[in-house]
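Posting for a labmate who doesn't have an account.
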Amino acid sequence: IGQLSEAVVSTQSTGVAILLTTFVFHCTWITSEAYSSPSIVLAARGHDGNRIIFDDFREAYNWLKFNTPEDAKIMSWWDYGYQLTAMANRTIIVDNNTWNNTHISRVGQAMASPEDHAYTIMKELDVNYVLVIFGGMSGYSSDDINKFLWMIRIAGSTPEGEHIKEPDYYSSSGEYKVDKDASSAMHNSLMYKMCYYRFGEVSTEQGKPTGWDRVRNQEIGNKDFELDVLEEAFSSEHWIVRIYKVKDLDNRGTK
């Protein structure tokens, strides 16, 4: 009986050791997956299990560095400010250290406004280029469309932006959408137009209509539009980073 008990204990110990070893390997793999892909270089797994690298951020920052004037000013949401300063070596309007809520709100107001109103703000801030992050083609979910409601809330938090109301960007059923049911304020916002410019011509998934947003799983509702105050300057390989140049229009955007 004693020998049998020892055998059982030995078997249990071996089983526990195997489980612990497997757990350690699993944790190591999870950690390597999480930390080997910093926010600059993204990684994903394809349908066949192969690793796919998205190097769109470095591609776009290099383009800015070598294709824009050294004194060019870039407007983007504050999340990307440090990266733009460090990697593109360009002046940004707001960054992660901007404590002036009015300044951040002003950028949000530009993003949430129709082009004509946004142009006034961009000229006021002396903006030369505008950068947005878009995941609708690649499936990258941490994009500016998914952050847009926060921009809208901050935009409306100051007196100059009190006309910007969050409910105006929801559908009639109270949903946050980008399809044909999206609100007029959403369809006509600078953010929507910069992200979805020419996207209505693009096929992203087999069996889906053109303009199919892979993050929102919706067919965009505003496909056929042109830009008035901006011109597309650069879109990265997977369209994750899109950069627009602010046009120099006479008698526009001045107070």
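Reply:
Got it, the structure tokens are right above this. The radius of gyration is 24 Å.
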